[in-house]
Amino acid sequence: MVLDEIPGFWAVVPAGGAGTRLWPLSRSHAPKFLHDLTGAGRTLLEQTHDRLTPLAGDRILVVTGAAHRAAVRGQLPTLPEDAVVAEPSARDSMAAIGLAAALLEARGAEVMGSFAADHVIPDPERFGASVAEAVAAAREGWLVTIGIEPTFASSAFGYVRQGEPLPGHPSARRVVEFVEKPSVPVAEEYLATGQYRWNAGMFVVRPTVLLDLLAEQDPGFAATLRTIAAAPERLGELWESLPKIAIDHAVAEPAAAAGKVVTIPGTFAWDDIGDFDSLATLLGDDDACSVLGDETLTQLIGASGIVVPRSGRTVAVIGLDDVVVVDTPDALLVTTRARAQEVKNVVAALKEQGRADLV
Amino acid sequence: MVLDEIPGFWAVVPAGGAGTRLWPLSRSHAPKFLHDLTGAGRTLLEQTHDRLTPLAGDRILVVTGAAHRAAVRGQLPTLPEDAVVAEPSARDSMAAIGLAAALLEARGAEVMGSFAADHVIPDPERFGASVAEAVAAAREGWLVTIGIEPTFASSAFGYVRQGEPLPGHPSARRVVEFVEKPSVPVAEEYLATGQYRWNAGMFVVRPTVLLDLLAEQDPGFAATLRTIAAAPERLGELWESLPKIAIDHAVAEPAAAAGKVVTIPGTFAWDDIGDFDSLATLLGDDDACSVLGDETLTQLIGASGIVVPRSGRTVAVIGLDDVVVVDTPDALLVTTRARAQEVKNVVAALKEQGRADLV
To answer: How far apart are CA B321 and CA B339, in angstroms?
Structure first.
């Protein structure tokens, strides 16, 4: 299958998020999306760009923190200067994606799709097919989300509840509601119904539709975004007045309740690499020890889990199952896959101790 | 109790052994005895010297590998030049201690005691009292070993089987036999009898008695040692002709069989820190995580075992019990106390891979 560029389609890439559960790989000065976490030789941001270019050509807009703009441009040198928008500060996903929508609306873009910079999608062609179908529905005025088929009862993701099929579209379905991250038992019930999919935060929509949906909930928010788009020099002045809210709460949930959202069931594998446990799942099988990096730096005897040798030092692991060892030049993490969520507690402790140099 | 110097007593300190089960702390260029493994701020060699000086004054002779002579002199700067004897190569303990005996015999020393440079004895006064009693027996011509009271059924040590008390001495007993490292069940039987003590390789004896006992088994060996003592410039020429054999096999076992050995029951705690498991036992209790080094470099959440932060980097450990984490500038070890013996396999693998720089 060869993907065709989708006419009038713009890809928006919000490149944010600290990824503290991937410390000490992910740092505030070099968050998750700037790293090669799959051993592909390309960072997550680069892979996201690689995946979107066949669909959008050079119609790509990256929204990132001011502190990361130079790094983003360094990793994506073919993007023009104005394709990387710097947020003065992190104000959650509605402000970031809304700003992109306003800028694209001003440029007369027909349809946009927002795809986080730090997700892993091994099959770009299936992904592209889902995006193409999402764009087709979005052109009709729908807010479209690509819903991922759940592979287990995850409590780490929000879910989309599907309703009736959308006539005239191969696989699109109406969205009944978005639901927040459930407990595992509730997630199990969701899976048993066959009606739920993971909400991966992939929204495809006409920029004007998105801003108008926002305006229904918060007219000032939408108006300020449009003001910034018309007068970009006012970004610094107006940005801090924007609410800090996720796009799910600001737009997707109320729009779903109003019957204005459809979902395309994505048939591709997807991962947001929330922590080292999911990274280990992504990289390997349960019996072996995955090495993310130079295997010749490792000496493994009776070990399983994941080892990340990133300091150039030799790493020897003996007799530990499901272990996580992440070796960087200034910090070392040793834990287990089961406790990988608690890595964020170390980051919090270091912050509290004033160790900004380490987080 | 203040210890008195023991007249005519010389302390011999064999400073050898690779300590590969303590890699990556212990290296071929910097073996175990050169390290501070107890957090006392003094290396094992320095602590050995500290322990022996009250007993022997300046009558101390260190026998070490030529490669380590400079490091030994650096750590023991008060020793005179000729107090540190360099072996041209490692030829096991009989050659090392036998050379010291020959040199001391030539100097007219009355009694010598041999104490390894890498043992830990927290109570120097009790140790000194045992040495004093051992010297008293050695003056009468006995080969005296200080036998350590076993605290568990160890399969890592050889044992001394005690016989009848030696008349005229407070606690000395005849030695029936030396036995090699037993299995744990056999060691349990030993302990149940109450007749066995650990052989810590501490021998106290008149130099002439030791060399004559050796001569009974291997006249050429003893003669060559005496030749070297008389003409030290021939050390390099003659050294490689000496047999590689432990003093236990060469002298202690046959002497015990001939009824010429007594033991002093040491009442002091003792450890030879064979691996990181025994180091963890030495340093801490079972529920906590011991840190050998700068605690401010560690972030520990739900961890027990031992962490050795020696690279200056921050070490975070989450949710692992009985773990061993040893962080050095060029190599990192992660294992468990139960698997600590296998560290030597990593060293063997690195040697095989030609990584002499790491071992």
So the answer is: 13
Burial class (CB in 10 A: 0-12, 13-18, 19+), A43: buried
Mean confidence (pLDDT) of chain B? 95
Alpha-carbon radius of gyration of chain A: 21
Burial code (b: 16+ CB inside 10 Å, e: under 16) for B26-53 equals: bbbeebbbbbbbbeeeebbbbbbbebbb
Helix axes B44-56, B124-139, angle to 10 degrees: 50
Query: What would the mean pLDDT of A196-210 be, rounded to a whole number?
Result: 97
- List B residues 266-325 in contact with A (Cβ-Cβ < 8 A): 299, 301-302, 313-320, 323, 325
**Does one domain contain both B161 and B196?**
yes
Establish how many alpha carbons lie within 13 A of residue B304's alpha carbon, considering only the half-sphere containing its beta carbon: 10
Q: Which of B317, B335, B358 sits opposite A318 (nearest CB)?
A: B335
Instruction: Check whether residue A127 and residue A51 sit in a common domain.
Output: yes
Note whether A210 and A326 are same-domain residues.
Answer: no
Angstroms from B348 CA to nearest CA on chain A? 11
Contact B275, B22 (CB under 8 A): yes
Q: A194 with A304, same domain?
A: no
In B, which residues are within 8 Å of A27 by CB distance?
none
Question: Number of Cβ pairs closer than 8 Å across A and B?
Answer: 113
- Which residues in chain A touch residue B313, judged by CB atoms under 8 angstroms apart? 329-332
Residues A93 and A208 in one domain: yes
Going by C-beta distance under 8 Å and a sequence separation of 6 or more, which residues neighbour residue B337? B276, B277, B280, B305, B306, B322, B323, B324
Token duo for residue B1: 């109790």
Q: Which of A299, A338, A339 sits opposite B350 (nearest CB)?
A: A299
Contacts of B275 in chain A (CB under 8 A): none
Task: Categorize the per-residue pLDDT at A156 as very low, low, confident or very high, splitting at 50, 70 and 90.
Answer: confident
> A344 and A295, same structural domain?
yes
A35 DSSP assignment: S
What is the residue range of A354's domain? Answer: 282-358
**Chain A contact present for B356, CB below 8 A:** no
**Strand partners for B10:** B112
Q: Does B339 touch chain A (CB under 8 A)?
A: yes
B346: tokens are 């990593």
- A25: nearest Cα among A269, A235, A308: A308
Q: Are A329 and B313 within 8 A, CB to CB? A: yes
Kindly report, residue by residue over A16-74, the tens digit of the pLDDT: 887 899 999 999 999 999 999 998 999 999 999 999 999 999 999 999 999 999 999 99
Domain count, chain B: 2
Cβ partners under 8 Å of residue B119, min gap 6: B44, B48, B200, B270, B271, B272, B273
Sheet holding B289-291, edge to edge: A298-301, A314-318, B331-336, B323-327, B305-309, B289-291
Single out the residue in A236, A266, A296 at which a domain terminates: A266
Tokens of B325: 């984490």
- B325-357 pLDDT per residue, tens: 999 999 999 999 999 999 999 999 999 999 999
Put simply, the answer to whether B318 touches A325 (Cβ < 8 Å) is no
**Could A318 and B343 be called an inter-chain contact, meaning their C-beta atoms sit closer than 8 Å?**
yes
Q: Contact A335/B350, CB-based, under 8 Å?
A: no
Are B316 and A299 inside 8 Å of each other by CB?
A: no
